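We both want to read discrete structure tokens more fluently, so let's practise on a single case. Would you supply a protein for us yourself, any chain you care to pick? Would you write everything just below, so we can both look at the same thing?
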Amino acid sequence: MNRLFIVALIVVVFTSFQEEKPIDYPVIKNNSFEIGEEVEFHAMYGIFGKVGTCITRIDKKIHIINGRACYKIDAFGNTDGVASWFAKVKDQWGAYVDTTALVTHVSYRKLKENDYKRDELVNFDHVTNKAEVKVLDDKTGIYGNVKYYPIPIHVRDLVAGFMYLRVLNFNKYKKGDTIAVAGFHEDKAYNLKIIYGGKEVIKASKFGKMLCHKIIPIVPDNKLFDGANSISAWFTADLNQIPIFIKSKMFVGSINVELASTRGLRNQLKIIRD
């Protein structure tokens, strides 16, 4: 009996240690953004001019999720002007993003696009590498229809992936190099590949000329964008690494997204003086 008791005790203690083993989160250096930042972008479409507005906002306080310090980051997008006559869009994308590893712990989407609605909540379990996806039932007002999906290690949703691009050291890449980012969206894990396009001087209409890193995400086949290299983005080559211009070539025309205003930037933008 004494021997069985000792064996059982060893098993319990060993199992406890196994369960409490910390996750090996990466430590990512971030000099680009901080709490309280708010950035506004305008979407422009040919002769129609401004057709949409997007605002990204980092909450003014740090939140604790799964025992980890997190940024609460939201992106709000809506149609404006002529576009709102035939396409009423009011979307919110948000995530609690680990301040040290910049991985996602919780993400959520509240989408209203004409008659389409989706209210979604995703919990990322970095121990079991699974995502728990729940969708709100319009009739009951309760999150149901729970589904689980496998996710890669150090996965990021689209919001965290965007912020991760802002801290990458692009200076270590050569023009033509490919960068991979592990992500998850809706019901599918993916490995987004991005081509580094080198440095270019870009003129932002409301700010002036700035030296930028050009990146080209490889877009999978879809019914919206025209080709794998249909999107190009220019991130400032300063400490902010904030996008100032995004060009999207679609099957019908092009949509350009421009930086419109900033508040609470961690660093001053570097404008090239003529």
Observations:
- The mean pLDDT is 87.
- DSSP finds three helices and 15 strands in the chain.
- Residues 20-263 form a domain with the YmcC-like fold fold (CATH 2.40.360).
- Residues 38 and 175 are 30 Å apart (CA to CA).
